[in-house]
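Human:
If only I could read backbone structure tokens as easily as an amino acid sequence. I am handing you a single protein, as its sequence and its fold in token form. I hope you can help me see how the letters and the tokens relate. Thank you; the sequence and its tokens follow:
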Amino acid sequence: MTPEEIVADLNGKNRDALYAHNDYQHLTHEQVLALMDAAAMQGFKLGSNVALSMVKGALLVQLTRSVGAQKDRSGA
């Protein structure tokens, strides 16, 4: 996902969370802050998941190259 797609996705989810409250126009400051915290956590989790996927992909490429190099040396 591009940064723009990530922001658009989070924005949609955040709006859904906000408008899920029947009285969203009358939220207290604490409720708004709680929603902001939840939105921040969603962004953090998404970023962490993307980073983990990138590391896993890099390790898979490295392992594949290593196994391929070993096969080339063994003549298989």
